């Protein structure tokens, strides 16, 4: 399983490790891995650094090929990878820099519920959510959009759902990019992708996706927590899902369409999975238009999941949603490519920022933030494994200077699925979690085994590294109480 | 007409490793291996048939496109392939018949959700008298 790295890695400081660009003939910039002495061994064994070096060869890349502390091996780009290319300098966009699950991301809802009060009824509430929210392989949602409707949804994102009365304006405002990337073109999305998506908007899917009831255990930053509506002892709900089959198909379609692009543009690639095209080419523009449509679909998916979760909780408690304080804290994308302006070598440049398993972490004052958060900074939502913790952090000015305003996206896997299943043999993961006070329900036979806490890196160590490196600041740590999975 | 497919371990995902006497048999073995990842294939009845035709620029791209089409049949129409027969295969074209049925939660136990068929470490090649293939699935 160990893949190692044959190039050179130099420690810069306690939290940063450099792969110098002269260690490979085609690297255009350095690689920079955010990691700690405790984490770096697994990082090197996992094969991520090789991919960081590969990404550093992409045309137009600026700054450095970056990896967050939750780095692990991915397709083409590592997971936890951030790469920005200069659009005007022939910079490329790569579907592998976004991933198959376009706009996989996280949404956090806060409530006025007290975790202690809920504990007695927790098991029943988890059961209710498990019955009410569609989860698992091959499971669609109750919302079915005909082709014409789906095209509107892809073009307008959450705004379309607001128009249809399926979302409210406050949710839209508390979503990255307002739940809609402009420039989405449903016409660039294949019929197959539309067919895969038609009954999947508002369904969780399987794999590492989940809905989790959490208790805010520790608040580190009172001002930011207050601005986000978070306090110790309170119940929060975290939703982790993406663009379902529609997004997977868009990625597959464009990996196929771009197979010949590197040859046409004279781009020499170290890995076929890195296929790419200049942002300002027909192929690049078309991929971005389709990717944006899939991203809008994913925001609508999480919106409709949140809608079902709220309804289910209110029904279970026999209270009106409005009396539960069920407000959306924020929604972030962690698999996406966006055109953003950042200062590079002292001047603002229009960049295509790929975040693959990385979360945008914009600082206070940024115009992209909703007004309520502008004095504080962007909430950065970091889901951990289901037995440990998840975090809310806040974006910093330092992240703008170091990582194009990006931080980590989760804990990062260390065990393969098969190894996790083997490690779970003869054990009951649900019982082990229950002993820690966590109620877990999963549809699939192997879901809990594959996603057991031991399959992931230590989320506390990952977040500590992000915090210490200044990429984002800790605001709150949440403990899981109840988990539902596909 | 020997053919065989098994899975191998790969970081967050799973791979299919197959071998067969002919390219057509190899593709069929990989497609059945894909169904094995999705569900308990022995419970799927070969009651209905579907035809697939795929063209690509080389044999490895052909494998990705063919397996992606089998995956789409499941994701869109919930069609599970119990048996796969490839009637004609060259390194750039393929015609196959899938025999299977629509997913029925009462009889079929689904296993893993497959997001996509990837190009990573993809290898379809003729080694001596036999064809071998390795394909990694994104779960």
Explain what the structure shows.
The complex is a heterodimer of chains A (486) and B (139). In chain A, 32% of the residues lie in helices and 26% in strands. With 486 residues, chain A is an alpha+beta fold. In chain A, the strands form four sheets. In chain A, strands 7, 8, 9, 11, 15, 16, 18 and 19 form an eight-stranded mixed beta sheet that branches. In chain A, strands 1-2-3-4-5-13-12 form a seven-stranded mixed beta sheet, sandwiched between helices. Chain A has a two-stranded antiparallel ribbon with strand order 6-10. The model of chain A has no long low-confidence stretch (mean pLDDT 94). With 139 residues, chain B is α+β, with helices and mostly antiparallel strands. Chain B has one domain (3-138): Archease domain (Archease, Possible Chaperone, Chain: A, domain 1). In chain B, strand 7 (123-127) and strand 8 form a beta hairpin. In chain B, helix 1 runs parallel beside helix 2. The longest helix of chain B has 19 residues, at 59-77. Chain B starts with a strand and ends with a strand. The chains are: A alpha+beta (486), B alpha+beta (139). The interface between A and B is large, with 41 and 33 residues.
Tally of helical segments of chain B: 2
N- and C-termini, Cα separation of chain A: 27 Å
Share of residues in strands of chain A: 25-35%
CATH topology of chain A: tRNA-splicing ligase RtcB
What brief labels describe this structure?
heterodimer, A: 486 residues, alpha+beta, 17 helices, 32% helix, 26% strand, B: 139 residues, five-stranded antiparallel beta sheet, 8 strands
Short description:
The complex is a heterodimer of chains A (486) and B (139). Chain A has helices at residues 37-45, 48-55, 115-118, 122-132, 147-156, 158-163, 169-173, 191-197, 222-228, 244-257, 261-264, 282-317, 397-403, 417-423, 429-435, 447-450, 459-469, and strands at residues 10-13, 16-19, 30-34, 61-72, 79-86, 92-93, 105-114, 210-219, 234-241, 277-278, 327-333, 335-344, 347-356, 359-360, 379-382, 390-395, 406-407, 439-442, 472-485.
